[in-house]
Amino acid sequence: MTQGATFAKWQDDKFLAQACERLKDFSSMKIKSCFSSTFKQYGNWPGHAKLKCPRYVSEKANWASMHIQGKPCFGGHLEKNVFNIVFLDEDHNLWPTHKKNT
User: What are the tens digits of pLDDT across the range 4-32?
Assistant: First the structure.
């Protein structure tokens, strides 16, 4: 079962190059310097996620997301000082947000 987008879809949607640039930018920084509005830690697996936690990763892992632009983001978990990408989450399905004042 495929969850999230594929690299081919991100390439077609013009996100892939920008995503690679974002990874390159963050890879030159210390992990604590990366956390901002574009790279957030969430802690345990979110119960309201539209995706399913893969069996090979604990729900208690330190889950995080790295936004590319707008909704598209990498979803994954932090292990020591390494961000392990698990999903290409173009629709914000790992941490769905509710629209405010609509």
Answer: 888 999 999 888 999 999 889 888 888 77
Q: What is the DSSP string of 41-102?
A: EEESPPTT-SS---TTS-TTSEEEEEESSSS-EEEEEEETTEEEEEEEETT--SS--PPS--
Query: Distance between CA 101 and CA 87 in Å, rounded?
Result: 29
Report which DSSP code applies to 33: H
Query: How do residues 66-102 score in pLDDT, each as one tens digit?
Result: 888 888 889 999 988 888 999 998 887 777 666 555 5
The answer to whether the CB of 17 falls within 8 A of the CB of 66 is: no
Contact between 18 and 69 under an 8 Å Cβ cutoff? The reply is yes
The three-class DSSP label of residue 40 is strand
